[in-house]
Every structure is written in C-alpha cells, then in structure tokens.
Write a structure and sequence with these properties.
Length: 322
C-alpha cells in the first residue's frame, strides 16, 4: 500500500488537537488540507467525531448498521450538505480511531462525490475487526504459527527490508503457501514445541515448492515461557513501536484477522522460542511437491524428521540470506 502522499505530511498526529469542545455539528475543523470534505469535531466534552460531507442531491442510505460497541456511524442532514458521521464511543481505541480517520480521508479523497457513500461503507466494514475484536481464540497451532511468523518478521525482515517490503513479502498472512517470499528467496517458518519430538508438519504440495531461486525452511524450537519471555501482545507492540503512521496502518490491516481473533489468554501467554535453525530446500531435499508427485494427487500432509535433515542445515545468518 503505497499512498500517493505520506500520512505524516498530510495530517497532524492528532487531528482533534486544535478542536474546541462541544462544537459539533456547528463547527468542523478541516483535518485534511487536500480535501475540504473531511472534518473533525468534538461532540460534548469528550466524544471525538470525524465527518465526510456529501452534496444534498446524492441519495444516501442509513449508516447505522456500521455501528458497534466502540464506533457509532450515522447520517446527519444539514441545510448545506449531508454528513456521514463516525463517532468514537470507547476512548481506549483513540489511537486506532486516529488512524481510521486518516485512512478514510486518504482513501476517499480519490472518489467523486457520488462514489463516496459506497466506498465509505466498504472501507468502514474492513476496519471493524480493529474496533470489535472477536477474541474467540486462534487455537494452539495457529497461535504458535502466527507468533513464530511475527517473530521472524520483527527480528529479521523488518530491520533488513523495512515495513512495506516486509509486509509485501509476508505471504503466510495472506493464506498463501509459503510464509515469506522476497524477490529471490522464499522462507517457510515452522515452530516445533517440546511435545512434537523433533518432527514438523508439511501441510500441502505447495509449502516447500516455489518459483523463487532459493527456499529455506526456518525451524524454531519453543515451549510455554516464563517471566523473561515475550507474549504475543509484547511482540506485536514492539513490532509497531518505531513504525510511521502509514506503516503502522498497513501492518494493522494485514495482521488484524489473526491478532484480533486471539483470545485475551492467548495474547498474554508467555512463549519461548529458541534460535532458528535454517535448512536449505534444494532438489535433494525430501519434499513432496507438484513437480515430483503424480498429478492425480491433489493434496498431501506429512511429517519430516529433523534428525534426518542435518545434511541440509545452513550455517549462515538469516540476514545474510535476505
């Protein structure tokens, strides 16, 4: 997601910084200099709102169905325009609400007046996961998978490639076969917990098959952690700590289907991961792929014994492979 402009150039950090309280709806502060359709106000003493103005002649249906616990959306008709109003109801989500207001303006500024209602609805629906985490739980395997991929992203890709290129290479978060694919190299991330006895699961014919020049299998060993180890929440927050606002927005939108589904217990569970071990997946590596199995076989799942893969170990740093 390379915006036509940078958030830090187009917006102040806090769009409501210069707003007076209890000014809504009579007064709206322009928070996006490129387009006067976008304004912010403070309703009462503490309710933050941002508005998108549309001409009166454009038919607009109600937006109340977009409302949920933390956000209220509604249509306000004034003498001069119709305003689509988004109001924050839970101050715990103020940082996310700032990003939402900026993203909506950045996205909708490219739309004509008549396109605004439809595009507003589509964009707002894509944001609901941030403000209404389902927290039903990922389950142990998905939790460990997401945690280990996030650690690999934070510890290796992010410092070497930067936020945008790292996120573009994170195929696993997009539910594609390999976990990370750069221009020349693919990485498949596996995490072996103590109960798995030096075995890893390969879940498809595509997982160790790639069109890139090289593919590496990265294997972590892990176990339930103690006080000195990191939780998913701590890894997540440290990953975005130094990102710009537009990078943070891109990251949040990519990872929300997993992070917002993780239960409170899961995001606060201490987990330990040892140093990753690297294996080179070449022609002699014992992998089942679409290139070496009968074409009538469409799906496989199998286990690899790491004890039998020592000859494929790579004695290099991951950063040197990127």
């Amino acid at each position: 997601m390379k915006n036509d402009f940078l958030f830090r150039d187009a917006f102040t950090d806090n769009p409501w910084e210069n707003c007076k309280r209890n000014t809504f709806p009579a007064y709206g502060h322009l928070y996006f200099s490129k387009d006067p359709r976008f304004t912010v106000s403070i309703k009462g003493n503490s309710s933050f709102v941002f508005c998108v103005k549309c001409p009166k002649f454009i038919p607009i249906k109600s937006f109340s169905d977009l409302s949920f616990d933390s956000i209220t959306c509604y249509l306000l008709e004034t003498e001069s325009a119709n305003m689509i109003v988004c109001q924050l109801e839970n101050s715990d989500f103020f940082e996310e609400f700032k990003l939402l207001a900026k993203d909506m303006a950045a996205h909708l500024c490219k739309c004509s007046d008549i396109e605004i209602p439809k595009r507003y609805r589509e964009r707002m629906l894509s944001w609901r996961e941030f403000f209404k985490p389902v927290r039903t739980g990922l389950g142990f395997e998905k939790l460990i998978g997401f945690y280990s991929e996030l650690r690999f992203f934070r510890d290796f890709l992010l410092p070497k490639l930067g936020a945008y290129e790292s996120l573009e290479s994170w195929f696993g978060i997009q539910k594609k076969p390999q976990d990370f694919v750069t221009s020349n190299t693919a990485f498949e991330i596996k995490c072996m917990f103590s109960r798995e006895k030096n075995m890893i699961n390969i879940q498809s014919l595509d997982q160790l098959d790639t069109a890139t020049k090289s593919i590496f299998l990265i294997v972590y060993s892990g176990h339930i952690g103690d006080k000195g180890d990191e939780t998913l929440k701590e890894v997540y927050e440290s990953t975005i700590a130094d990102m710009s606002e537009e990078e943070k927005l891109y990251f949040l939108r990519h990872t929300s289907p997993y992070y917002t589904k993780a239960s409170i217990e899961e995001i606060n569970q201490k987990l330990f991961l040892g140093a990753p071990v690297i294996y080179s997946v070449g022609k002699k590596f014992p992998a089942l792929t679409r290139q070496n199995v009968d074409k009538r076989i469409k799906q496989v799942s199998y286990k690899l014994s790491l004890d039998q893969l020592t000859s494929f170990k790579v004695d290099k740093e991951i950063l040197d492979l990127l």
